[in-house]
Amino acid sequence: MNNKKPTLGILFGVYFVSLISNIPMFASVAGPTIMTVFPDATDSLVSQIVTLPQLTGLITILLAGVLGDKIGKKNIGLFGAALWTIFGALAGTAKTLTQILIYRGIMGLGMGCLLPLGVALVMDFFSNSPKLNNYMSAQSFIMNLGGIVGSALVGWLVQIISWKWAFFIHIIGVILFISFLCLPAKKDWPVAFAGPGGPGGPGGPGPDAPKAKLPAKVFLMAFMLIFFTIAQTGYMQSLPFIISDNISVEQAPFLAGSVMSTANLVAMIMALAFPIAAKIAKKYMPTLCMAFVAVGILITSKAPSYAFLVVGAIVFGIGQGMFQPTVFTMACTLAGPATMQATSLLSIAASVGGYAFSIVFIPLCQKLGGFGFGAQLVATCVVILAIDAIAFILFSASLKFNPYERPEMPGPGGPGPDAPQA
After folding, report:
1. According to DSSP H, which parts of 117-214 are helical?
2. What is the rounded distance in angstroms from the CA atom of residue 153 to the CA atom of residue 268?
């Protein structure tokens, strides 16, 4: 199946989950309205409308990684889509804030099932294709596009109709459920490619090969991803402080928001450049992405005007846009058939990195005192990126093959280029 032209149903099922993956996060736009509707609402409780699904989702991200290859990714997707749709929409019918939080918590369990599927499905269906990099860049582009369009759509619905539509938007999950029904059954599911040295040799495992365990290198990649996410989160959180220190306190919120939007827009576009960049940088792609991110952060930190902020955001967005397909393609190639385990592990690592910055590094910078708080955050981010980039260089040098190249193969799990002639 991997070498055949994919059907429209398979393409839709593979990519639609990426398109809507960020929708639960946009409920934050209804926060001010919810506080007026529910008198007992506090800033802390309203913030949990967004953070609680992320926490409960960690449970099912882990379970999905363990069970996905055993009971089938299609079944995991159907279960996750059902919870995501039903309980996500039910939050709009809630009479109390407690009910909203309960529904959102259960919805988060479904979200945790869906998050690792976006990349895992692409790898399973297209990993043997020489055009894998194109499919991965499309997945990242669609995910970013869903974030930009989704945030605007939810904000418009909340403003024009009601705060309830921050939750009723989940009815789109019916389409997601149907899209999973279009995917093949477990017995017809393709087997992901494993690079040279992986299970089954250069051509990857055949359809009857035993399931591969997650190799140690994927765990090491997840550990390094934590630190990249810490630096990425630090950039976003330091922007208002940098702008306040260097440009204007009054304009800081607006300028920070516009700079973040610029970075996200560039990231969405640059995801499409991943296949070209991968041909140039080869297995050192992660380090190239991190170099762009680090330079973007440095430009932003010294920005004397809005123009410099935009330049920094563009450079940052170039690296950010290519990093996601870069890391997930490398990890899933190393993982072989264990794509679900690999994507689940990386998703957990990214979540841990985001929380680690808020819990550890912000209090640490506040305790150190000294020069501007924004400058401290930036300095912390750059040091972390420098160390992480060196680690990725050493890691990439240890690989004996280029994870971004795919040989032509006669079929899923077919013999590799070095296999003897029949």
Report:
1. 117-126, 132-160, 165-168, 173-181
2. 17
How far apart, in whole angstroms, are the C-alpha atoms of residue 289 and residue 318? Answer: 7
**Considering only CA atoms, which of 144, 145, 125 is closest in space to residue 135?**
125
Whether the per-residue pLDDT at 422 is higher than 70: the answer is: no
- The answer to whether the beta carbons of residues 49 and 101 sit under 8 Å apart is yes
Q: How far is CA 79 from the centre of its chain?
A: 20
Residue 407: pLDDT band with limits 50, 70, 90:
low
Show the tokens assigned to 136: 């991965």
User: How far is Cα 403 from Cα 195, in angstroms, rounded to an integer?
Assistant: 7
Going by C-alpha positions, the residue among 274, 270, 272, 240 that lies closest to residue 258 is 240
The single residue listed with the structure tokens 């330091």 is 238
416 to each of 125, 206, 308, 329, 405, how far by Cα in Å?
17, 11, 49, 19, 12
Neighbours of 353 (CB within 10 A): 21
Dihedral sign (CA 280, 285, 289, 294): negative
Contact (Cβ atoms closer than 8 angstroms) between residue 297 and residue 315: no
Q: Rounded distance, CA 222 to CA 219, Å?
A: 5
Q: Does pTM surpass 0.90?
A: no
Measured CA angle at 341 (ends 121, 102), to 5 deg:
85
Distance CA 233, CA 227 (A): 10
H helices of 283-372, in order, are 285-301, 306-335, 339-356, 362-368
